[in-house]
Amino acid sequence: MHTVRLALKLAWERGSLTYRNRSGAWNRELRTFAVTANAHHGLDRDTATVRLVEAYFDRYGPASLRDATWWSGLAQAAVVNALDRLGRPLTAALTPWSTAALYLFRDRFEEFTRTGTKASPAQVDFLAHEDVALKAYAQTRVRYLGGVGERAAFNQIGEALPAVLVDGRVVGTWSWDARRRAVRCAYHRTGAPPLDREAIRAAAERVTAGLRRGYDDNRVNRAGDPEAPQLIPSATP
């Protein structure tokens, strides 16, 4: 089994296999793998690159070119070429959190301008472990770190911690208390913005209710070992 696990890990890292979690509960896994070419419709490299770069700036802009290269693993020239090929107008923005030029699509900029910002109530978000919102940036991470250090949002090997954000800034972390079946919060003492505890409490209650619905008390997969990998001939969406 150890050899099988290593082979699957290597094939997944090289992109030959795709991973799907077939579990119906968030606190356990049912690991399945399929041949990537069979499970997903293939794209030529140029088309795939353009779509990836567009998805990044559409979801995470404004962002720097260095942010995009770090997130995508592409060379900067490939990112710039993809944006040129895309032909979707860009806007360059200067922000308080970075001296680098940041880019977002013009239609997104206009959407943000029309929407504006609300003074209250506070916007509270509970982000999952390794949440893509925290992993989307490298050069400009300070946008959500504010006055706290990177270890407030990332562990020593660079994994994003389950974070509590208030108005887009990290104020603490959260965890699941299995005994109480509830969310537990821990707040940073320095550098974090003022806490709106009422808004955080309300958000924690909503997250708790949602996690309780998807929680498996048995934590045992009826098909067998929940950690045992399975290789399937194909995977359907």
Automatic annotation (TrEMBL):
Basic and acidic residues bias: start-end ranges: 216-225
Region listing for Disordered, in residue ranges: 216-237
Name used for this protein in its record: Winged helix DNA-binding domain-containing protein
Species, as recorded: Actinoplanes siamensis
